[in-house]
Amino acid sequence: MKRMTTLLGALVVALVFGAGQAIASEGGGDAAQTAGQAAASGQTAGGESGAYQLGPSNHASSIRVLSPGDDGSVSQSNTTTAGALAANGNATSQDTTQSQLGGTGSDQTQVAGQAAKSEQDADADATAVQLAPSNQVGSIRVLSPGDNGNVMQSNEATAGAAALNGNETQQTTDQLQGGGGYGSDQTQIAGQAAGSDQTADADATAVQLKPSNSASSIRVLSPGDDGNVSQTNAATAIGIAGNGNSTDQSLGQSQTGGGYGSDQTQVAGQEASNHQDADADATAVQLAPSNTASSIRVLSPGDDGDVSQRNSATAVAAALNLNTTGQSLVQSQAGRGTGGTVLQVAGQGAWNRQSASAGAASLQLGASSETAPIRVGSPGGGGSVRQSNDVAALAVALNLNETCQALMQRQAGSGSDQLQVAGQGSWDDQRGGAWAHAIQGGMPKKKR
Fold it and tell me: For residue 12, what are the contacts with CB-CB under 8 A and spacing of at least 6?
């Protein structure tokens, strides 16, 4: 028990800096190898983007008196876009190799330790705001035959934010001892620890307030057709927060014992811990989009154009966590003599904690489309009136964890005491929350 306490204490002290080593010892000599590796990485990334558009307006007015002719088309396009990206990437690779060849009466000791730690934070925010874009067209005709052009308006407010973290850690330890003759003691101690802490947060907000499109036509003794009146409004917000981690640990120990009274000891431990948090929020708001077309005709034959409006508010949020942990531990001892002690102690532990939260909210209030034709002694047809309103909210929270542990122990001896102790533990805690709200209020108006 005292010998085991000493060995386990040496494992704790094993993390001193060194390199790959190879030693050959003749009879009566002692050979000791100590190797340690430590790698730490801290990363922080922040991205913010804001796009604002206030009150873009488009006005076109036409007054004709005894002036036949056609009015041209009137179009307005407003786009507000904000994009933010915060990304962290880390790759850590550690490799330790130890080899010893000893003779009679030689004591061989190998101590190796590896530690890798990574901390990553990513935050991305995007905001797109569009306030009161307006498009107005007025046409007055007196004794002026002709056609009015089309009136079109397109408004878009888009915000996208993505916060991403990626980490890959690889650790490899190989220990090889070839013992000599009588009274040779062989000891191998190896430890590996890998820790990863990741946080990703993404927020996207798109707001569109009171986009309006108005077309009015007054005709007196002015035959002709009115053009189409169309409006398209879109508010889109996308937020993505993702974490990805891959940890691979490999540890191999091999001892070939010598003659009578040779003791062989192998102590190996692996530990992998991963902590991931992902949070994504997306909000799309569209308030009171309106489309108005009015036509007054007095002794003015002709057709009214179509009136169409399309409104779309979409919010998408996705929070993703992905973790893959692989642990492989192989111990091999071959004792040839008698009266020796062959001991193997191995342990593996994997801890994983993941939390994913995604929220999406889409709100559309008071969408209206109005057309009011007035005809006095003016034959003709009225155009179609169409309105389409889409409100969509999608939230996805995903956690994926895969833990693979492999532990192999092999002892071959004659006349010796053999003991194998192995333990494996895997702990996984995953939490996922997703909520999505789509609201359409004010019962969109559609008048003719």
Answer: none
